[in-house]
Amino acid sequence: MQHMVEGSANNEVLENLRLELRRGCLILAVLAELRSERYGYTLRKALAQQGLEIDEGTLYPLLRRLESQGLLASEWREEDKRTKRFYRLSTDGKLILKQLSVEWKSINASLNEIL
Amino acid sequence: MELIDRYLQAVKFSLPRAQRDDIIKELRDSILSQIEEKEAALGRQLTKDEQVELLKKLGSPMQLASRYGKQQHVIGATMFPIYWKVLKAALGLAFLVQAAASVAMAAAGKTFAQSLSPLLHYPGVALSVFGWVTVAFAAMDFFGAKIQVSDRWDPRKLPPLVKSEPRKSRFELIARLVIQIVFGVWWLAGLHYQYLIFGPGIALFRFGPVWQTIYPLFVVIVLVDVMFTAAMIARPHWTQGRHVALLVMSALGLVVLYFLINTPEVFVAADPNAPELQELVKSVNYGIHIGLMIAAIVNVINIGKEAIRLIGRSFGRASQASVGS
Q1: How would you classify residue A66: left for phi > 0, otherwise alpha for psi between -120 and 50, otherwise beta?
Q2: Which residues in chain B are contacts of A67 at CB distance < 8 A?
Q3: Does the beta-carbon distance from A41 to B59 stay under 8 Å?
Q4: Cα of B210 vs its chain's centroid, Å
Q5: Which stretches of B124-239 are assigned E, i.e. beta strand?
Q6: Which of A72, A83, B155, B211 has the fewest CB atoms within 10 Å around its CB?
């Protein structure tokens, strides 16, 4: 019984750490994918095709947060008889993406050494 | 589609008002895009069960809507450790005050129910203390965040290191417990059989009536004193125990002093018909009253010092924890 409790506590810890680890990576991936204009659904599919699954409940609020931070620009346009919100990187977003990419590569190289 | 609309309506209810319509429009498009793609792959319309599955993957409406809100808290992570320490100290202090009021009422001869009343009111007092402390810290956190005080901290102003006091050995504590019990029994018995305390002096003096009035208070003091020592034997790592014990005993002592100072006859003459003895007792009582006044002042200072030390130690540890984190 105690093992079960410890096991479920460990799973919870693992899940929280996994989410923390993914959070920053997803931001970078979303910014990178939005170098070309996309709407939410196609962005999600593009990320999934490259092995980064992200649910709507995470993606759409993230897009709004990045837009409110001035990293993304968006506009409503009609496509396939439905209005969709298209997102793309703003000028500030491009700059931040460049800086974050450098940071990511540095962390990645260090971690490869450490791990 | 009715199911989708019902889902979106439920999500909309919990969304920030300014963005509601925009978010719902985008979510609707996303859900419909998924349905269209699945229907194209299956070559038929999705069944209700399949729509339910799709919505379940999105999470409950409340859960989904909550992700659009800003992260909210009343007291932030930086302020929380200090808030928690102060809250515990304030709740403890409030309990001491209520307990002292109960003891004072019992000593003043009030009925058991009346005496218990301040203690029974503690939950209400605690709730009020919790409310005020929380509001005060929430305000500090809010305005602190606005003016960004955390950027102006100076390492030279950090609290001094908290020195851990040498712990008493278990043998010392057991010896102390035995002495406390012997002294307590002697004192409580002596208040009834006064020759145990006065010895040959019983021919001259007796305790005044006030000592019988505050007898229950002495019982409480002896019990509390013994209980604190027993607690320290059981929990040797409870380093704050000595400070808490000193604080409680000083508070109870203050109640005793209050009663003694307010009575003209701390001691009475053994023979009420001997005028010389009456004069002597009068002089003794005068001297005793001056002594009691000084004792009360010292006691108040001690209570203040112990309370500040106790809160200060908590603050010191909380600040060091915040700096360390």
Answers
A1: alpha
A2: none
A3: no
A4: 32
A5: 205-207
A6: B155
Give the tens place of pLDDT for each residue, B176-186: 889 999 999 99
Contact at CB, B29 and A60, closer than 8 angstroms: no
- Residue pair A17/A89 in contact (Cβ under 8 Å)? The answer is no
User: Ramachandran region of residue B43, left (φ > 0), alpha (ψ -120 to 50) or beta?
Assistant: left
Note the pLDDT tens digit of each residue in B162-201: 666 666 777 888 888 899 999 999 988 988 888 888 888 7
Give the ipTM: 0.81
Distance CA B25, CA A38 (A): 16
Phi, psi dihedral angles at B143 (to 5 degrees): -75, -30
Contacts of A76 in chain B (CB under 8 A): 25
Query: Which residues on adjacent β-strands are paired with residue A88?
Result: A73
Residues of B with CB under 8 A from a CB of A: 19, 22-23, 25-27, 29-30, 32-34, 57-59, 63-64, 67-68
Q: What's the predicted TM-score (pTM) here?
A: 0.55
Taking contacts as CB-CB distances below 8 angstroms, the residues of chain A near B19 are: 64
Helix (H, G, I), strand (E, B) or coil at B218: helix
CB atoms within 10 A of CB A44: 24
Mean pLDDT of the B34-40 span = 90
Give the pairing of strands B267-269 and A72-79.
unpaired
* Cβ distance of A57 and B23 shorter than 8 Å: no
Tally C-beta pairs within 8 A across A and B. Answer: 42
DSSP string, B40-93: HHHTSPPPHHHHHHHHHHH--HHHHHHTTSPP--SS-TTTHHHHHHHHHHHHHH
Percent of chain B with pLDDT over 70: 86
Q: Are B44 and B95 in contact (CB under 8 A)?
A: no
Q: Are A37 and A86 in contact (CB under 8 A)?
A: yes
